[in-house]
Design brief:
The chain has about 80 residues and is mainly α. The protein contains three helices and no strands. The protein has one domain.
Amino acid sequence: MFEKYPETLARSQLVLAAVAVTQFLVSLDLSVVNVGLPRIADGLGFDAVGSTWVIHAYALTRGFHGNNEPTECRRQRMVP
């Protein structure tokens, strides 16, 4: 499939590597939040059920509005 277009193979491998690194960083970020979750919940006055809302809200906002996208994409999304 990529024999005719070696630059396409290189580009697809680069994209795959970028996606893998991004996924690793998101997983690491959520792991850090999970470690600090008891202290966050105590600071907010939440019980065990309330602390699940903290991690869900953080994961959703990080997933939907993460800082992993280029500035141009964010600018285009703001323009109607």
